[in-house]
Task: inverse folding
C-alpha cells in the first residue's frame, strides 16, 4: 500500500515536470504549423533577405531583413550598455565590496530585475525619449538608441546575477594561491578569478542577450516602429518582437500576413534557443573544468 | 641556538576571530635552514598561526592580531607592512593542491609575471623551479598542458615549484600531504628535506610520524597555546610537558 502511494506521488510529480516539455512541444508545433505555409508563397531567401516589409500593400511584401536589422542594432546597442555595467557590478559586489555595500547592492540589482517591462517602457517613453531627443537634437526620441539604453538596463540583473554565481564557483583556494605568490587584489582578479569564471561570465552575457532579443513591450513602446533598414542609432527601428506585437491584432486569421508573423516568431524562438544551447554548453564545459579541483 | 640563526621570531602573538581568541601569547623562533613542525589536535590554531606569518589572515574580515612577528626586524603583524613584499619572502603551500586552471608553465610563471621579467629569464626560472621541486622530468614534455591534468601529488609539487619560483626565504607548508597517497607523501617529504638546505621551513601536520621524519624542531599546540617547543629528537622521546606526552601517546587528538 505504502509503495503504491509512493509510486503515485512520483507519477504525479513526473507528470508535472513533463508538462513543461508538453508546452514547449505544443509551442514549437504550432509555430511550424502556422508559419510554414508562408514558404509555399515565398522562399527562405526572400523572407530573410527581402528588403521591404509591407504586409498590407498589394501585393504584400514580407521581407524581414529590416526587422532583423532592427533587432540587431538594438541588441548590439543594449550589449554595449549591459555588458560593462552588468559584469562590472558583479565584480564589485562579489569581489571588491565590503559586506555592508554588498548587503545594499545585491537586493537593489534583484529589484531592478523584477520591475515589469511595461514600467521600463513607460519610463522610456515619458522621460528617456524626450531627454534623448533634446540632447542629440533629433526629430524623435523614439529610436534605436533609446531602446538600446533601456533594454541594456533591463538586462543588467540577468548578467550580474549569473556572473556573480560564476565568481562564487571559483574556488577560494585559487585566490589564496594568487595572494600567497605576492599578487595584489587586482592582479588576482584579472589574472586568476576572471579567467577562471570566464565561461560563466560569457554564459551570463549570452543569456542577457537572449533576454534582450526576446523583450517586446519596451521595444514596442520606444523603438519608433519604422520597418526600414538603418545603421544609425538615431533612427526609429522596428525589431522582430515589436512587429509581432503590433501587427498580430490586425492580421486576418490564416492570411499570409498572419503566417509571416508566425514565421518571425519561429525565427525568434530559434535565435533564443541557439543562445540558450550555447550558454548551456559553455556552462557544462565550465563545470567540468573546475570540477577536478573542488 | 645562536641568536643570528633565528630567521623569524614571534613574540607574544595573539589572534582573534571577532571576539574569540584563537591564539594565546605565542612565543617561538624559526631557525635558518631548519624545518619546524607544528603538531596538535584539530582546531588548536596551528594553521591560524602559520597563516599569520605571510599575512594570509589579513584576508579574513573581522580578525585582529596582537604581538610581534619579526622578519628582518620588520613586524609582519603591523598593518602598515606591505603584504605583497612579505608574501614574496615567505611562500606558502596549501593543504589541498591548488594549481590554477592554466598550463603547467603558466602556473610556475605566475609569480614571475607579476614582476616583469624577460621571457628567456622566465623560462630558465621555471625550469629551475620545477627541477628543485623534483617535477621537471615528469612534465618537461608537456609544459603547455593544463595543470589540472596532473595527479594530486604532481599538482602539489607543482604548487611547491610555483612557490619556489618567486624565490622566497621561508616556506610554509600547511598540511601539504593531507590529501595525498603514501607514495606522493614520501616524495614531498624527501623534497622538504632537500629544500631545507636553502630555505627555512615551517610545516603544519596532522601526522606525528611525518613531523618526526622531516623536522628539526617540533612545536606542540593545544587550544591556541604553544605547549612545548623542543628539538624533534627530544620531544618525541622525552616530552617535557604532560599534555605533550598525552597527545603523543594517543590519549587524545
Result:
Amino acid at each position: 500500500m505504502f509503495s503504491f502511494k509512493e509510486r503515485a506521488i512520483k507519477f504525479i510529480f513526473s507528470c508535472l515536470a513533463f508538462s513543461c516539455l508538453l508546452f514547449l512541444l505544443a509551442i514549437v508545433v504550432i509555430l511550424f504549423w502556422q508559419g510554414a505555409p508562408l514558404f509555399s508563397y515565398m522562399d527562405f531567401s526572400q523572407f530573410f533577405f527581402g528588403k521591404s516589409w509591407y504586409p498590407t500593400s498589394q501585393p504584400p511584401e514580407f521581407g524581414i531583413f529590416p526587422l532583423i536589422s532592427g533587432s540587431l542594432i538594438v541588441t548590439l546597442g543594449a550589449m554595449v550598455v549591459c555588458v560593462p555595467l552588468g559584469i562590472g557590478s558583479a565584480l564589485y559586489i562579489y569581489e571588491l565590496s565590503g559586506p555592508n555595500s554588498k548587503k545594499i547592492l545585491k537586493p537593489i540589482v534583484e529589484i531592478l530585475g523584477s520591475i515589469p517591462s511595461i514600467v521600463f517602457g513607460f519610463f522610456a517613453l515619458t522621460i528617456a525619449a524626450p531627454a534623448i531627443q533634446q540632447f542629440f537634437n533629433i526629430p524623435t526620441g523614439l529610436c534605436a538608441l533609446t531602446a538600446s539604453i533601456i533594454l541594456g538596463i533591463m538586462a543588467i540583473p540577468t548578467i550580474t546575477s549569473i556572473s556573480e554565481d560564476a565568481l562564487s564557483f571559483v574556488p577560494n583556494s585559487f585566490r589564496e594561491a594568487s595572494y600567497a605568490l605576492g599578487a595584489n587584489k587586482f592582479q588576482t582578479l584579472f589574472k586568476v578569478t576572471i579567467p577562471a569564471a570566464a565561461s560563466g561570465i560569457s554564459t551570463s552575457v549570452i543569456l542577457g542577450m537572449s533576454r534582450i532579443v526576446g523583450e517586446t513591450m519596451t521595444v514596442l513602446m520606444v523603438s519608433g516602429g519604422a520597418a526600414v533598414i538603418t545603421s544609425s542609432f538615431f533612427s526609429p527601428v522596428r525589431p522582430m518582437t515589436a512587429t509581432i506585437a503590433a501587427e498580430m491584432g490586425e492580421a486576418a486569421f490564416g492570411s499570409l500576413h498572419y503566417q509571416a508573423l508566425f514565421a518571425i516568431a519561429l525565427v525568434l524562438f530559434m535565435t533564443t534557443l541557439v543562445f540558450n544551447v550555447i550558454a548551456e554548453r559553455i556552462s557544462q564545459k565550465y563545470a567540468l573544468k573546475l570540477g577536478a579541483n573542488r | 641556538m645562536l641568536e643570528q640563526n633565528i630567521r623569524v621570531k614571534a613574540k607574544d602573538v595573539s589572534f582573534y576571530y571577532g571576539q574569540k581568541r584563537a591564539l594565546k601569547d605565542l612565543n617561538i623562533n624559526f631557525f635558518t635552514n631548519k624545518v619546524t613542525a607544528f603538531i596538535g589536535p584539530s582546531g588548536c590554531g596551528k594553521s591560524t598561526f602559520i597563516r599569520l606569518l605571510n599575512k594570509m589572515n589579513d584576508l579574513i574580515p573581522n580578525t585582529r592580531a596582537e604581538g610581534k612577528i619579526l622578519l628582518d626586524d620588520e613586524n609582519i603583524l603591523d598593518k602598515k607592512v606591505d603584504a605583497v613584499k612579505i608574501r614574496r619572502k615567505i611562500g606558502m603551500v596549501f593543504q589541498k593542491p591548488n594549481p590554477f586552471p592554466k598550463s603547467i608553465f603558466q602556473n610556475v610563471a605566475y609569480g614571475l609575471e607579476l614582476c616583469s621579467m624577460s621571457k628567456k629569464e622566465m623560462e630558465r626560472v621555471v625550469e629551475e623551479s620545477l627541477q628543485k621541486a623534483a617535477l621537471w622530468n615528469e612534465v618537461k614534455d608537456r609544459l603547455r598542458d593544463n595543470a589540472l591534468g596532473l595527479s594530486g601529488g604532481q599538482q602539489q609539487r607543482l604548487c611547491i615549484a610555483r612557490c619556489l619560483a618567486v624565490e622566497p626565504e621561508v616556506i610554509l607548508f600547511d598540511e601539504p600531504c593531507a590529501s595525498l597517497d603514501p607514495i606522493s607523501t614520501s616524495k614531498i617529504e624527501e623534497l622538504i628535506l632537500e629544500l631545507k638546505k636553502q630555505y627555512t621551513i615551517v610545516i603544519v601536520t596532522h601526522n606525528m610520524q611525518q613531523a618526526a621524519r622531516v623536522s628539526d624542531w617540533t612545536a606542540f599546540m593545544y587550544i591556541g597555546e604553544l605547549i612545548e617547543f623542543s628539538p624533534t629528537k627530544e620531544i618525541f622521546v622525552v616530552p617535557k610537558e604532560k599534555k605533550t606526552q598525552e597527545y603523543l601517546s594517543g590519549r587524545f587528538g
The two ends of chain B are 30 Å apart (CA to CA). Chain B touches chain A through 27 residues (CB under 8 Å).
